[in-house]
Design goal:
41% of the residues lie in helices and 16% in strands. The mean pLDDT is 86. A hairpin with a 2-residue loop joins strand 1 and strand 2. By secondary structure, it is of the alpha/beta class. Helix 2 packs across helix 3. The chain contains eight helices and nine strands.
């Protein structure tokens, strides 16, 4: 009888233990589900805030071109937002003029003279970044082969399918315009260290032959436009925020001209821009969203629009 009571007691304890384990598992699962739902809700709200910021910048770009026909670092679109309070979080963002950078796809320009002019600016940019001339020349040729439509290597330093098919793993040359500067990492001659140095000064626009806005170009890009940059270029950098150039002719003629023979031709220079990028970060609750939005603003007065987005990289 005592034995039966002992068995019954042990059975009861086991049943209680199993019930406790099951209840704990159910509560843990429910708790995880609640947190997952909250995270999804925070992420969804962050997306809505990002969409609102994106639309807000569209109106700013449209209003800006109505106020003036040039773009400079003193314009309202260029002012960063370091902290913008929102419901249960905050947002920050920065608009960048992509035409202040060197457009890698300009190396695909079909005209031979135009290509040589673009190449010279790119080579000077690499020289300013302390890249040796041999590596710089090879990289310029390899980029052109990466994006041009033919399968003929550009000189001795170029690279088409036959070059890349020998890699491990092998891959082919896309023979189309770059969609992102990150494609540089797959181009012959590029290293991660060089990419990190070059990245802030280049872009990949969906158009060939875009000029560089001298009012917004970083120092290295602006100096690359000149064969021999000097004190006048430094002074222009200091003055352009408060006094941006409204007419490119002011930089190519007259007493204050800083571009002339041997420098980038006038066709490569601009004082206004059509391509911009917004990098926005939204924090809502436990959610965080980083959004890159790419804007195109037609010069003919049409409304600007977003032509691409990314949550990974620009």
């Amino acid at each position: 009888m005592k034995r039966q009571r002992g068995v019954a007691l042990i059975t009861a304890i086991l049943v209680v233990a199993l019930a406790t384990v099951a209840a704990t598992a159910i509560l843990t699962s429910a708790n995880i589900a609640v947190h997952r739902a909250a995270n999804l809700q925070d992420s969804e709200r962050a997306w809505w805030y990002a969409d609102g910021i994106e639309s807000w910048l569209l109106t700013i770009l449209e209003r800006d071109i109505q106020d003036n026909q040039y773009d400079g670092l003193g314009d309202i679109w260029a002012k960063p937002v370091d902290y913008l309070p929102i419901d249960e979080g905050a947002a920050r963002g920065q608009m960048t003029d992509l035409q202040g950078r060197f457009n890698l796809n300009n190396l695909a320009v079909p005209d031979k003279l135009a290509f040589e002019q673009q190449q010279q600016v790119f080579l000077r940019l690499l020289r300013l970044l302390e890249v040796d001339s041999f590596q710089a020349q090879g990289l310029a040729s390899a980029i052109r082969d990466w994006i041009d439509a033919d399968s003929n290597p550009t000189g001795f330093d170029g690279g088409e399918d036959t070059e890349y098919l020998g890699y491990n793993p092998p891959y082919r040359v896309p023979n189309r315009l770059m969609e992102s500067p990150t494609e540089l990492l797959a181009v012959k001659g590029m290293t991660r260290e060089l990419y990190a140095r070059l990245r802030p000064y280049v872009t990949a626009l969906p158009q060939v032959g875009t000029p560089i806005n001298v009012n917004t170009a970083p120092e290295a890009v602006l100096f690359a436009l000149a064969k021999e940059p000097g004190p006048l270029h430094k002074k222009f950098l200091e003055d352009r925020i408060k006094d941006p150039i409204e007419n490119i002719g002011d930089l190519t003629s007259g007493a204050n001209a800083i571009f002339g023979a041997g420098d980038a031709p006038t066709a490569m220079l601009a004082v206004n821009s059509s391509y911009f990028m917004l990098r926005a970060e939204i924090f809502v609750g436990s959610g965080r969203l980083a959004l890159y939005s790419f804007y195109y603003r037609p010069s003919q007065g049409a409304a600007p629009y977003v032509y691409a987005r990314s949550i990974d990289t620009e």
